[in-house]
Design brief:
CATH topology: Eukaryotic RPB6 RNA polymerase subunit
Number of domains: 1
Helix content: 40-55%
CATH class: Alpha Beta
Oligomer: single chain
CATH architecture: Alpha-Beta Complex
Strand content: under 5%
Radius of gyration: 12 Å
Number of strands: 0
CATH superfamily: RNA polymerase subunit, RPB6/omega
Order of helices and strands: HH
Structural class: mainly alpha
Distance between the termini: 23 Å
Number of helices: 2
Length: about 60
């Protein structure tokens, strides 16, 4: 898993939570009792399967 700053992590999880809230299919099997899109997005982030890429400028 790539190393992200706390701001990048927050942006990725927030964007994925918004997608889930608007009906995007989850990328993992949803555990019983999990209904909050933010919790689900955080689980997906921890498993490193969110299809969002961060491009960092060098130089």
């Amino acid at each position: 898993m790539e190393e992200y700053t706390k701001y990048e992590k927050a942006r990725i999880i927030g964007a994925r939570a918004l997608q889930l809230a608007y009906g995007a299919p989850p990328l993992i099997k949803v555990p019983a009792g999990i209904i909050n899109p933010l919790d689900l997005a955080e689980m997906e982030f921890d498993k490193d399967i969110i299809p969002i890429t961060i491009i960092k400028e060098t130089g």
